[in-house]
Amino acid sequence: MDQVFEGTPKAEVSLDGRKVTRGDVTNDWGSKIQWVVKKDGKVVSTVAARAETTHEHPDKTPGKYEIVLQQFKYVNFKKDGKGPDAKYTQSKFIDISESVSYSI
């Protein structure tokens, strides 16, 4: 049985200092939700976001930070190899919010 994706998940996010908060996810597919934190364009952290609606990134090192909420879109389990470094070839995380940013 194939998974049916009805609608596109979306969530509003707000930023207060280094603390980001998400609203309810509309059209939620029920898969993993995560915060992705980038510093100066490079991913520095991914944090589970389903159970908690807020996240405060602890790093206070100077730089430009960008945070976006993502949800996993399962297509199949096909990977580009075997082992812990194998990557999904079709299933992936997609952005479900606008990104927010701050600078230190």
Describe the 3D structure.
With 104 residues, the chain is mostly beta strands. Helix content is 0%, strand content 41%. The protein contains no helices and 8 strands. It has strands at 13-16, 19-22, 33-39, 42-48, 54-56, 64-73, 92-95, 100-103. Strands 3, 4, 6, 7 and 8 form a 5-stranded antiparallel beta sheet that branches. It has a 3-stranded antiparallel beta sheet with strand order 1-2-5, with no helix packed on it. The N and C termini lie far apart (48 Å).
Task: Summarize it.
With 104 residues, this protein is mainly β. 0% of the residues lie in helices and 41% in strands.
List the helices and strands and how they pair.
Elements (H helix, E strand, L loop, with lengths): L12 E4 L2 E4 L10 E7 L2 E7 L5 E3 L7 E10 L18 E4 L4 E4 L1
Antiparallel strand pairs: 1-2, 2-5, 3-4, 3-6, 6-7, 6-8
Defining traits:
0% helix; mainly beta; five-stranded antiparallel beta sheet; 104 residues
The outline comes out as globular
Quote the average pLDDT. Answer: 89
Overall strand count? 8
- Poorly predicted tracts of residues: none
Number of helices: 0
Percentage beta strand: 35-45%
Order of helices and strands: EEEEEEEE
**Strand-pairing-aware structural class:** mainly beta
User: What is the radius of gyration computed over CA atoms, rounded to a whole number of angstroms?
Assistant: 15 Å
How much helix is in the residues? under 10%
The biggest beta sheet, please?
5 strands, antiparallel
What's the structural domain tally?
A: 1
**Distance between the ends:** 48 Å
